[in-house]
Automatic annotation (TrEMBL):
Cofactor field: pyridoxal 5'-phosphate
Binding site for substrate: 304, 308, 335, 362
Name this protein carries in UniProt: Diaminopimelate decarboxylase
Quaternary state and interactors: Homodimer.
Family annotation (SUPFAM superfamilies): Alanine racemase C-terminal domain-like, PLP-binding barrel
Taxonomic lineage of the native organism: Bacteria, Pseudomonadati, Bacteroidota, Cytophagia, Cytophagales
EC top class named in words: lyase
Source organism superkingdom: Bacteria
Pathway: Amino-acid biosynthesis; L-lysine biosynthesis via DAP pathway; L-lysine from DL-2,6-diaminopimelate: step 1/1
EC assignment: 4.1.1.20
Keywords: Amino-acid biosynthesis, Decarboxylase, Lyase, Lysine biosynthesis, Pyridoxal phosphate
Residue(s) carrying N6-(pyridoxal phosphate)lysine: 54
Function: Specifically catalyzes the decarboxylation of meso-diaminopimelate (meso-DAP) to L-lysine.
Gene3D superfamilies: Alanine racemase, Lyase, Ornithine Decarboxylase, Chain A, domain 1
Length: 407
């Protein structure tokens, strides 16, 4: 894996200098390339990408994704609104909530986006309220166990998501009772799925269910393509997924005379490798067995290592030729927020800039103010220029919504 010193000719050092650290930096061209790769992989069928907004929801990134020809999948009404603010038309937005109050569904319908129904009670309430006047999608739980770890495996039989494929007769009964117009069926099995066959398995569940819904316009195969987090780490062969999935999809459509669109919802595949978190070393200290490099960031900015034991490659931008030593890279949070353990890296000195890779997906979007720390800035490199796309938080942001009462 490469350790770039620059993005589109803009040096990372100059970005740190101009915008400070910690800072999330995204390579806009890389995001567009990923979209184009998927468009190529699925080009033999009518195809739509619905980017999983939750991975990285900055407005400028959304706008870039919109201009590159994708739509979005939104999992909250706030993501729907962000999408619209970034320029997506309502019909380009799929709303995939998980167990939300019906008022939120109503709001989404009023905004004109298509809602992905994920329980039988919701199908019934939707049916009672709208009958066949508002088209909808149904999220099926395909009973497939797949994904990088249990927390991100969401298509198995014990997962809270979707409606069990075993309940297909009950789904059909509820849909028919209210005359619902079902335009789409959806599965999403999990994240970090390496094996292309899993997407086909999910597809087979969609095909089985699709037989019951004559008005369908699309089948949504979900997201979850695995990206490489380190040297030698396998990643999903999306060309292979495209080949096998489109072949089965075409065969299904031909056999049953259906004319459908194929949708997918990638998050990580579009933005993970395009993003990095640039941090500065504050302190280097050694215990008897370990040398720690403490940086101006932590689990409040990148929770993946602590939450999923995720591996993020890190390199020393300031001293690439330094003598190799072993380090634990740790954050400043008052918890054991080890960002990387036992890493062999060129000597790290105070004030060295370190680059944490693959931070585009589920980095900023999962960041918090834990320890009353401020969230970092976000910078998008686009057309050879670094643009600030979110200001670093300031102390006032922490107190803005607090009410200090008389005590
Ligand atoms: N569609 C739905 C309905 C989803 O729930 C998700 C992710 C995606 C698409 C996109 O999955 P992706 O292509 O990004 O793997 N925070 C975790 C990942 C959680 C994914 C949640 N759902 C992580 O950092 O690994």
């Amino acid at each position: 894996m490469q350790n770039p010193q620059q993005i589109q000719g803009v040096s990372l050092e100059s970005i740190a200098h101009e915008f400070g650290t910690p800072v999330y930096v995204y390579d806009g061209e890389k995001i567009v390339e990923q979209i184009e790769t998927l468009q190529k992989a699925f080009s033999s069928v009518p195809f739509k990408i619905k980017y999983a907004t939750k991975a990285l929801s900055n407005l400028s990134v959304l706008k870039l994704i919109k201009n590159a020809g994708a739509g979005i999948d939104a999992v909250s009404i706030e993501e729907v609104k962000l999408g619209m603010m970034a320029g997506f038309e309502a019909p380009e937005i799929m709303y995939t909530p998980s167990g939300v109050p019906f008022e939120e569904i109503r709001e989404a319908v009023d905004l004109g986006v298509i809602v992905n129904l994920d329980s039988i009670p919701l199908i019934r309430e939707f049916g009672k309220t709208y009958g066949g006047s508002v088209p909808a999608c149904i999220r099926i739980n395909p009973h497939i166990l797949a994904g990088g770890n249990h927390k991100i495996s969401v298509g198995h039989v014990e997962s809270k998501f979707g409606i069990s494929i075993d309940l297909l007769p009950e789904i059909v009964e509820a849909v028919n009772e209210y005359g619902l117009k079902i335009w789409g069926l959806h599965v999403h099995t999990g994240s970090d799925i390496y094996d292309a066959e899993v997407f086909l398995k999910g597809g087979n569940v969609l095909f089985e269910a699709a037989m019951q819904f004559p008005e369908l316009k699309f089948l949504d195969f979900g997201g979850g393509f695995k990206v490489a987090y380190k040297e030698g780490d396998p990643s999903t062969d999306v060309m292979e997924v495209g080949r096998i999935v489109t072949k089965a999809f075409e065969a299904f459509c031909r056999k049953y005379g259906r004319s459908l669109e194929l949708w997918i919802e990638p998050g990580k595949f579009l933005v993970s490798a395009a993003g990095l978190l640039l941090v500065k070393t504050a302190v280097v200290k050694s215990s008897t067995t370990i040398t720690f490099a403490g940086v101006d960031s932590g689990l409040n900015h990148l929770i993946r290592p602590m939450m999923y034991e995720a591996y993020h490659d890190i390199y020393n931008l300031s001293n690439p030729e330094g003598k190799l030593e072993k380090y634990n890279i740790v954050g400043y949070i008052c918890e054991t927020d080890t960002l990387a353990a036992h890493r062999q890296l060129p000597e790290i000195r105070p004030n060295d800039l370190l680059v944490i890779k693959n931070a585009g997906a589920y980095g900023y979007s999962m960041a918090s103010n834990y320890n009353s720390r401020l969230r970092p800035a976000e910078v998008l490199v686009w057309q050879g220029k670094a643009h600030l796309i979110r200001k670093r938080e300031e102390f006032e942001d922490l107190t803005r919504n607090q009410v200090l009462i008389e005590i």
